[in-house]
């Protein structure tokens, strides 16, 4: 039990886990589009990790440390892009970083997280842009839609988890838990449908299998469940397409 608590604190609560699964979600599409490169993977991980650290710790006594860390991360990311890509990739990355800051920043009077019902779509938008725009030479609408619908669906269970503590209007508070799940089911189904038509067969199959597991985890999402169910279980869904792909390719 102590090991599980340590694991949760060092891997999940530290924002490492969400950064890893977000990166693996991007890697899945990079492999499908034949744009897989290790510097890009490192760039995505650092961007997610520093962004989530900033969001979590900006109102704490650790903020100055996080600010310094983020500044260093920004320099590293800029170096990775300039050394391995081009100025267009740098501009794309900068725009995505700014969108992340608009989501939740202490220096803004009104930020996205405060706007009722918008949060789930905004998170889906930022993750989708990483997959369909940052890692590709040209914007890919199918990958954008697959990512946007899937990630938006995964954010909804977190609103179910937080429905008693959220101070802004969310879908579970507005239409109830069950109707929120129906919306999540629909979004996952749409993403699976687009993936089956657009992605190569093995990738579409991996995404379809991931969608089935995601349906099940959404079904059992309840406000009374332990936070680990969401921060590990639901969060893991974004890594499932890559994991199923590896299983099918190598086993």
UniProtKB/TrEMBL annotation:
Record flagged with keyword Transcription: no
Parts of the chain that traverse the membrane: 12-30, 36-54, 66-84, 90-108, 120-136, 142-161, 182-199, 205-221, 228-248
Keyword Transcription carried by entry: no
Alphabetical keyword list: Membrane, Transmembrane, Transmembrane helix
Listed name of the protein: Prenyltransferase
Organism encoding this protein: Chryseobacterium lathyri
